[in-house]
Amino acid sequence: MLKGKTALVTGSTSGIGLAIARALAAEGAHLMLNGFGDAGAIETLRAGLEKEFGIKARYSGADMSKPDQIAEMVRAAEKEFGALDVLVNNAGIQHVANIEDFPVERWDAIIAINLSSAFHTIRAAVSGMKKRKWGRIINIASAHGLVASGQKAAYVAAKHGIVGLTKVVAIEAANAGVTCNAICPGWVMTPLVEQQINARAKAAGQTFDEAKVQLVAEKQPMHEFTRPENIGALAVFLCSDGAATITGSAYSIDGGWVAQ
Ligand code: NAD
Q: DSSP alpha helices (H): ranges in 133-227?
């Protein structure tokens, strides 16, 4: 379905971003990977994706908190592949603390990486998409883009912000063949969440499994973690012709979290 198209997925060295990159590659898209990690492991990952899916995969180590590096990454993708057709803003970090204890530096980092990076990638990529009359922008928000929880001031603010940004871009690009949508996952089992479960288990003197079940049950009527592959499948659907008029939407994939 995406043969000959090119996709940039930020934060695709791990978790949800990697699952989305794999799902797009399985549809034939060439990839620009991005994210942190061990250089050798990333190279193995990149070469493995090329071999498994018969696509071209490149890697940018751009730091999503650095606007100049972000612009350069988009330029590099366009130069390497001749066009950038699918942009997935996925990179994200988390910090949990009451607002009075929230480190200013963590607030700034979360707003930069989870929100401003998407402004910078879209700003750099959307004119090319409009010119070619085809583009898909997918912003990975969260259930926390629609509702709040305590101790997550920066994350909730950034994710609400990205849902708003999604709507603005959808309106601006509405008649240029470019759609922009947000995906709002509930709990997905990835390294980001594993860290939170470990912290909770330690604080409450629980095992990892006890803390895991308690975490999901607090928020979701369905006591299941979403699999990263399910988010990949939704991203592929949003790139399909069937989704051509879906724009400005925030898609929940959250075991019923925000239905309550
Ligand atoms: P993860 O920690 O497994 O992956 C995060 C990715 O972002 C990694 O590739 C990491 O290297 C990259 N990254 C972090 N900081 C970066 C920076 N400054 N520059 C470039 N890359 C950077 O996390 P995940 O759980 O896969 O989360 C991915 C996205 O999904 C995030 O935006 C997160 O908020 C969102 N999300 C996750 C869940 C969940 O339950 N896991 C739920 C809702 C939303």
A: 153-172, 191-204, 208-219
Average pLDDT score over the chain: 97
CA distances in angstroms from 169 to 36, 80, 178, 179, 258, listed in the order given:
27, 25, 9, 8, 24
Model confidence over 128-143: pLDDT tens digits? 999 999 999 999 999 9
Question: Which of the 8 DSSP states describes residue 86?
Answer: E
Q: Which of 13, 45, 93, 253 to mutate to test the pocket of ligand 1 (most atoms within 8 A of CB)?
A: 93
The fold of 6-186+227-254 is: Rossmann fold (3.40.50)
Q: Which one of the listed residues 81, 155, 225, 257 is annotated catalytic?
A: 155
Q: Which of 165, 195, 190, 191 lies closest to 180, judged by CA? A: 165
Token pair, residue 184, equals 């709002």
Distance CA 79, CA 77 (A): 5
SS3 for 223?
coil
List Cβ neighbours of 27 (8 Å cut-off, separation of 6 or more): 1, 2, 3, 236, 239
Ligand 1 close to Cβ of residue 128 (< 6 A): no
Nearest atom of ligand 1 to the alpha carbon of 192: 2
User: How many helices and strands in the chain, by DSSP H and E?
Assistant: 9, 7
At 69-94, the pLDDT tens digits run 999 999 999 999 999 999 999 999 99
Determine if ligand 1 sits within 6 Å of the CB of residue 192.
Answer: yes
Ligand 1 centre to CA of 13 (Å) is 9
For residue 160, give both structure tokens. Answer: 């609400």
Q: Is 251 a catalytic residue?
A: no
* CB 135 less than 6 A from any atom of ligand 1: no
